[in-house]
Amino acid sequence: MLREPGIAVDEILLAARADPDLSTKLRTAESNIEHRVLSGLKGYYAELGIEPPPNLAIIMRVFVAAFRGLAITELVQGEEADTEASVAYLMELFGQLNIARARDHTPGSS
Question: pLDDT digits over 74-83, tens only?
Answer without folding.
Answer: 888 988 999 9
